[in-house]
Amino acid sequence: MIVGIDLGTTNSLVSVFTPDGPILIPNALGSTLTPSAVYMDGEERILVGASAKDHLINNPHTATARFKRLMGTDKTSTLQGKTYTPEDLSSFVLRALKADAEAYLGETVTEAVVSVPAYFNEIQRNATINAAKLAGLTVRRLINEPTAAALAYGLQDKEAENTFLVVDLGGGTFDVSILEMFSGVMEVRSSAGDAFLGGEDFTNRILDHFQEQLGRKATDLSAADLSRLRKLADQAKCRISDEPRVSVDYRDGEQAHTLTLSRDTFATLSEDLINRMKVPLQRAISDANLKASEIDRIVLVGGATRMPSVRNLIAKLFKRFPEHSIDPDTVVALGAAVQAGLVARDAALDDVVMTDVCPFTLGFETSHRTGPDGQDEHGIFSPLIERNTTIPASRNTIVEASQKGQTRIDLKVFQGEAPYVKDNIPIGSYQFALPYNRHDYEKVDVRFTYDSSGVLEVISTVVSTGQSKTLIIENAPGAMSAQMIAKRFKELEKIKVHPRDLAVNEALISQASAAYANALGVQRQEIGFLLSEFETVLRTYDNRAIEQGRRKLGEYLSAIDGAGVFD
Ligand code: AMP
Question: Considering only CA atoms, which residue is closest to atom 22 of ligand 1?
Answer without folding.
Answer: 304
